[in-house]
Design a protein that fits this description.
alpha+beta, 2 domains, 4-stranded antiparallel beta sheet, 11 strands, elongated, disordered C terminus
Length: 265
């Protein structure tokens, strides 16, 4: 099956964009700082194993989820009153480890599925964002300095998951003009991340050169080697470029590039 979407030339480089048929879910990264917990769904196996809806209860404020005193059945928690429910919440509440955000998976059948933020009553999963208090001191300083925003992190992760659910996971390959692979990467989530990656690769390679050897023949039929630093995007298709650099008036023939060690003059 052909997964290629687009082939373009950017600053001399050949760029091929394809769907990534092997793109794994964002949970495959194994990130422990923020992640989607296990989604309660018979059709979709999404989210991190061992982190179901019940695991989020200890990170909820009083009045949310099972701690909602208007809807909770106190007896389900072994409590005889609201006061006992509040005391149990205080015993189990862990305010310094994660902030959690309730989400629900909306299944459109053949139309796919989408994750969206919801309230604790409709949640079938939670996004977990570790708080600075649970990190090493260096991480705390970094997060505070960079205006740590748990909701913005959760929002970004939700966007990434929906990109994955929509099948918008891409693979990029950057080649020289003659088709030699320079670099590639898969599991790029969404068009914005894909284009950013392409820009980074082009920026990385555009000023790089490689040493190539050309055999130059003068009008008197004498020959010599000319070593040139050739732009890497040309690859082996660098002969015309070399002729321009050497100058046609000083040579009647330029051949190459060659492996200098294998050719005797």
């Amino acid at each position: 099956m052909d997964y290629e979407i687009e082939t373009r030339t950017t600053e001399g480089f050949k760029v091929i964009i394809s769907y990534d048929p092997y793109g794994e879910s964002p949970d495959s990264w194994g990130n422990t700082d923020w992640f989607l917990g296990k989604v309660s769904s018979k059709r979709y196996g999404l989210g991190r194993e061992g982190w179901n809806v019940a695991c989020a209860q200890n990170y909820l404020q009083y009045g949310e989820g099972i701690w909602d005193y208007d809807t909770s059945d106190y007896y389900d928690h072994g409590c005889d009153s609201e006061q006992e429910l509040r005391e149990k919440w205080q015993d189990e509440y862990e305010p310094y480890e994660y902030e959690v955000f309730p989400v629900e998976l909306v299944d459109y059948g053949s139309g796919g599925a989408q994750l969206r933020f919801t309230d604790t009553k409709n949640a079938n999963a939670y996004i977990y964002v570790s708080l600075p208090y649970s990190c090493l001191l260096s991480e705390v300083v970094y997060r505070v300095k960079h205006d740590f925003d748990p909701y913005a992190i959760a929002e970004g992760l939700l966007k990434t998951w929906n990109t994955y659910l929509e099948g918008r996971v891409y693979h990029v390959c950057v080649k020289t003009q003659d088709g030699e692979d320079l670099d590639s990467c898969g599991e790029l989530y969404g068009e914005e991340e894909t284009e950013d990656f392409i820009k980074q690769l082009i920026e990385h390679y555009k000023n790089k050169t490689c040493l190539q050897h050309f055999l130059v023949t003068r009008a008197d039929m004498s020959s010599y080697w000319e070593d040139l630093e050739v732009p890497v995007y040309l690859g082996e298709a660098s002969l015309d470029w070399a002729k321009e650099q050497i100058g046609r008036e000083s040579a009647i023939c330029v051949t190459g590039p060659h492996d200098k060690n294998k050719i005797a003059v």
